[in-house]
Request: fold
Amino acid sequence: MTAELVRGQNHPLPETRLEIRVSAGHPVLAGVTLGDEQGRVAGAECIAHSGAPALPGVGVPGPAAADHRLTVDLDAVPGTVHRVSVLLALTGAAARFGALAAPFVAVSGADGTEIASYTLTGLDRESAVVALELYRRQGAWKVRAMGQGYEGGLAALLGDQGLERAEELAASILAAVAPERDRPAEAPAPRVPRAERVPRTAPPAPDPTPAPDPTPPSAPGPAPAPGGPLDYAHPRRRAAEPAPAPEPRRAPPVPVAGDASGWSMDERLYNQVWGMFEDLARTAAAYRSACEFAESRLDRELDEALTDYRARAGGANDAARAAARARHDELVGRAREVLDRDLAQLAVESEVVEPALPVAYARWDNPVWHAYRVPGEEPMAVRLGDLHLPERTDLRIPMLVRLPLERGLWVDSGRGRSEAAAFLDEAELRRLALDCAVAHAARLLAAHPAGAFTVHLVDPAGAGAAALAPLVETGAAAPPARGAAGVSAVLEQLTERVDLLQMAVRGGAADALPPGLDAARQLLIVHDFPHGFDDRAVTRLRYLADEGPSVGVHLLMVADREDAAAYGPLLDPLWRSLLRLTPVPDDHLADPWVGHAWSYEPPLVPPGSAILRQVLTRVAAARHGKGL
Reply:
């Protein structure tokens, strides 16, 4: 059965020899680009269009037309190609897709069986669009309905795929494939005298040489028996060859940890994790889009049934409504089947990938922490929690954040709009927030080489002594600064450090820094803000949040925003500059890419586990040169 895709939805390809049919109702350019795993196209030699119609494994049609047939052999494309994008672009006087009928694309197998189709709805001012994407995932190929349009036309599309001089390249492609009526008129053919003209209905002159019969003569068959049935089959015609049996559908590929591009295993696992995030985001978006489409179509069909006065008699109205609901349920059911299939595949992949993650990416309950050793170099990223969607809450994707941090962190100790926080009292919520901050700090310390990361603590009232004990008692951090004077001293020290480093970087005089300056990256954990902070301290805190990350000074705030309400909008830029995390599960992480609200779950240490202190002890020992 053909899969009718909506934007963002994907579908497995059971075959690798494909035909892609395009029906646009208006002349369009059809082409193909070959990209790497990030979708980047190396150059003009990786674009197939009618001016250069042949690439390894790809064949495109002639000039711009309303209908096209493209051929793709995925087994023949180079091994470096991970994305095959099918693009459409308007030519000539056509300005935008929104003024034309919605284009339709269909993917068929070698035997003509249609695998998936997609109608590109929702286009408006765009004049170029990526219609489909065939992409490689764990050694198998899938098709994804893209519908990514570009108001800037083909030049903007090619530029988005990483091509240099995209405008010149787009102009040359459009000039090569423009329809005949869009090209300059040629000189008319010489006039033929009336007597020499051939009537339009005149048959062509016969060829005096008889055409050879392409079928070799076959041996005459035996004569029919007297009185038997006559065989009217032509003796020189062969029986038609039986149609080849369709290739068996491939089973889903078996997931393999590290099955992504990268120079090292850590980089491959990092790319694989975010590939899983992308797949989960897209399949959930496609399911939601299909359900919304089914609901809107049901509403429209019910309205039409109710307004048709001729169908009110004889039960026709009830039959129409029942049929509309049946179509709605069928569409939603098919979308759910696709979603469940993709979620099941992602769950299997997660079960394979999670145990193989290195220390910086692993959960605290992963046995890899028990073999922890201080690394010799900084990893690509650290794990700051897990992400999941309501379609399947037990499928969690690691939330990996690149190092060095580009912005500070804020562990929100307030209730906010979290349902989980509503069931906790204020003291318990604050304790969980500080425990979460300590776990983040321990992970950052463990991810850096010895002496490359320093943690400062600010606890003006001393209310967080118990939670901060693992950092202090193991020697991984100095005792926290307390009181207004202690807070001011730490902030002044870090502010001067930021000033010195910024001047050195801007002046190109990094070797002129004071000899006693700590070269390690700095993390300042601020607990119980704004208690103990005067106006000068608040100004310095904002300065560190804005200017610190560029020179390796980062904030980790543990605070309730409502406690700082007395400052009014003065601190709004501070909160916006920090990545908000929560000590309890919450769906506050907005994803503008597909419009999801991701549920975040903090990486807390399992109750009763001593792994946090063990790791911090090794970090402190390596920092002081003792070694364990």
Q: What stands out?
A: Confidence is low (pLDDT under 50) at residues 179-241. The first helix runs from residue 153 to 160. The chain has eleven helices and 21 strands. The first strand starts at residue 3 and ends at 5.
